[in-house]
Write a structure and sequence with these properties.
The protein has 9 helices and no strands. It has 246 residues and is mainly alpha-helical. It is globular. The mean pLDDT is 90.
Length: 246
């Protein structure tokens, strides 16, 4: 392991922290707020109607995200005694990813404002460059991380918000399909992991999830920042310790 490789990893960790903390916290707060607005007191009683990150971030899930690029927050619980209909459940589930999408747009606008000042900041290793470079790196990472949180949580896979949205909206139309997926959720998750993560590693084919994330990243950047260029951030992972470049 070289000092340069360690610098690359630490750079992504440090520049990722603001976007991760804000993205995780507001994602879960949006779930909680929506459930309470729909009449469920459960999130309020559990102390989830707060912007305090400590109430929403799971230490293990957050730590793993910084180490391997995959993690989780504390899920918001709601009661079906109050959130009864499929539409209501879909609304609670959709609130989290849509919040990350809104955050990504706000960070993109902030990038455009910074670039509009005439500054030409660069994404540099932590400790290099001036304040403009540091701000640019934080904004780019925060933008990218919230794109990742939006896309990943929108996947229609059991355990993710996208599945709850799909089940809430389509459960009455395709009840047998969702009953089967609920009964076989572990099988569905294993198949999804194989298709999204393992198969691309084995075959060398592009990851469908990675491709989708980059596509959403580029579309948002072209729409809200610059139609002629784009910047793609990255999640921290210990694999950066064995890489020679950002």
């Amino acid at each position: 392991m070289s000092g340069g490789n360690l610098g690359i990893y630490l750079t992504l960790v440090l520049y990722s922290l603001p976007g991760l903390i804000l993205g995780f916290t507001l994602h879960e707060l949006a779930h909680a707020f929506t459930a309470v607005r729909l009449g469920d007191p459960t999130p309020r009683m559990q102390g989830r109607i707060t912007a305090d990150p400590r109430q929403h971030i799971d230490p293990l899930g957050f730590g793993l995200l910084l180490i391997v690029g995959f993690g989780w927050a504390k899920p918001v619980q709601f009661s079906t005694a109050y959130i009864r209909t499929g539409l209501q459940q879909a609304m609670v589930a959709a609130a989290g990813p849509l919040t990350n999408l809104l955050l990504a747009i706000l960070f993109a606008v902030a990038i455009k404002i910074q670039l509009g000042t005439g500054a030409t900041p660069q994404f540099q290793t932590f400790g290099h460059g001036g304040l403009a470079d540091i701000l640019f790196a934080v904004l780019v990472q925060s933008f990218f991380i919230n794109v990742v949180l939006f896309v990943f949580n929108s996947l229609p896979v059991p355990g993710l918000d996208g599945y709850m949205v799909a089940r809430g909206l389509l459960g009455g139309i395709l009840p047998d399909l969702f009953r089967w997926m609920d009964r076989n959720s572990q099988v569905v998750i294993v198949v999804a992991i194989a298709l999204v993560f393992l198969l691309p590693q084995i075959t060398g084919a592009p990851s469908p999830l990675g491709t989708l994330i980059v596509e959403v990243n580029n579309r948002l950047y072209h729409t809200f920042v610059d139609p002629n260029s784009t910047v793609v951030g990255g999640l921290p992972s210990i694999t950066q310790l064995f890489s020679s470049s950002l």
